[in-house]
Amino acid sequence: MNILEKITQNKAAFSKSEKKVAEIILANPQTAIHSSIATLAKMSDVSEPTVNRFCRRLDTKGFPDFKLHLAQSLANGTPYVNRHVDENDSPDEYTNKIFESTMASLEVARQSIDVNVVNRVVDLLTQAQKISFFGLGASASVAHDALNKFFRFNVPVVYFEDILMQRMSCMNCSAGDVVVLISHTGRTKSLVEIAQISRMNDATVVGITSADSPLAQECSYVLSLEVPEDTDMYMPMASRIAQLTLIDVLATGFTLRRGNKFRENLKRVKDTLRGSRYEKRDG
Amino acid sequence: MNILEKITQNKAAFSKSEKKVAEIILANPQTAIHSSIATLAKMSDVSEPTVNRFCRRLDTKGFPDFKLHLAQSLANGTPYVNRHVDENDSPDEYTNKIFESTMASLEVARQSIDVNVVNRVVDLLTQAQKISFFGLGASASVAHDALNKFFRFNVPVVYFEDILMQRMSCMNCSAGDVVVLISHTGRTKSLVEIAQISRMNDATVVGITSADSPLAQECSYVLSLEVPEDTDMYMPMASRIAQLTLIDVLATGFTLRRGNKFRENLKRVKDTLRGSRYEKRDG
DNA sequence: AGGAAAATGTAATTTTTTGACATTTTTTAT
DNA sequence: ATAAAAAATGTCAAAAAATTACATTTTCCT
């Protein structure tokens, strides 16, 4: 855990002098990492060993080790994971909190990915006769995005928002078809049914969902994404982003597997789009 | 700049002994930050002052300062911004690269946002009679996502993929309506036209696009997002994610502005969804 | 090959951190 | 309310680490 958060959390457990140190550090962490223990002790109006004890209480080896941890917390892009948006936040505050917590969630998600499954799924996708992407609610737009990405590969790819269309499409599946189902919770009934139908029709079902969910149990392969609790109570936020990034990973794996010749094809698609665009002026 | 990258880049300019040090550090940076200058000197088979000189050559104050920088480079979530996917990457490598560069892009995007415009747009949205979200291609799924988010707020919200429907919808706009147009490049002709049509019909047009683009010029307000070059040559990746996160910011600003009573309404929407889900078992 | 310049190492100095122990403050039990 | 115990904090000295000054070696150029 981020040591700044840790200091904030443990603040109550600190002794009087340790609190002084904590406050000085929290008030100006950038200064703290560039100070010696003597300087910091003087700033906090506390003795040097007290600062040292403070560091050890936070499970660091000593002052230098503590500074290392602090430096890491302050590093660019290392976000406060659990900074939830608060009712009284200013636009500046909630904007930063949302970006930071999104980045933090991506980091957690990244670590939770099983690369072997990714590799296996990329294999499947490159060999698929037809690829379908389905999701509902917030995950529908992820499926939509996947359609857009894979469509450029010039492979038969299908996406429906309508659950009846989804069902019909799956009933017509056959061996060699891959159905990718996206759901954060993995508890959406109709999507679980889609998984069952698809498998009955010999399609391979890939779930982008949380492990141990009902949906996960019905899938041939599960790309499980661990995403921290969403920042906003009522809307999926980070989970979507993690799913999208995973789609990017799959799409990238796909192009890499297909090799160079294939990438030229992609370029062609891109060039075709040019007609619908305003050209960029020089200078 | 990331000090690890810096070491790699300057490697040619190092002297023989300094190269030894560089290699030991690059080979095992995690060990390096936990070693004393004496240990590191011994590992590199070099004297202590040489290590010190090495640190100074990299524009640090000395060895401890160097360790601080190194620690920051190694911090969780601090990505190598310019790590592009390479043809020969293993699944593990490209997965990590994509996640890391996505996080890096979010960080850049975050810094480029003008919070005042965000605030102003949130104002507009809360007071809008009708909100429309339009995008094409990769941005279509972003618009789709925005629909999903704002639909929960129980406000009149519109989204079309079809450009004719988009046009017709905009022709029926009136004062008080807000049209949000999403495009990474801001050079999609039909979207620029949509902006013009909307403004002619007294709607307020908000662009989520890059500054100085043709689209930006037609908008009443521009939420410009600076996103580094996409990792993959042929597909928009990071830009989409940044757009989505910005949508999250707007949605969050929206709920905050509307206050508590409004949030209860949101909860109700969420509860309604429960019937379509499998309940989570305890334990 | 010889000398200047650069690189590296040695050893001493200084700075910084840590440990041992004394003193003060706080807590608890009567 | 007070004495004893425990916890917290500080003082000072020892240890560790980093840095400096200077000596030696290596490299490069003529």
Automatic annotation (TrEMBL), chains A, B:
One of its GO terms (biological process) is carbohydrate derivative metabolic process. Gene3D superfamilies: Glucose-6-phosphate isomerase like protein, domain 1, Winged helix-like DNA-binding domain superfamily/Winged helix DNA-binding domain. It comes from the Bacteria. Keywords: DNA-binding, Transcription, Transcription regulation. GO terms for molecular function: carbohydrate derivative binding; DNA binding; DNA-binding transcription factor activity. Residues 121-260 form the SIS domain. Residues 1-77 form the HTH rpiR-type domain. NCBIfam families: PRK11302.1 (NF008451). This is Transcriptional regulator HexR. It comes from Alteromonas hispanica. The gene is hexR.
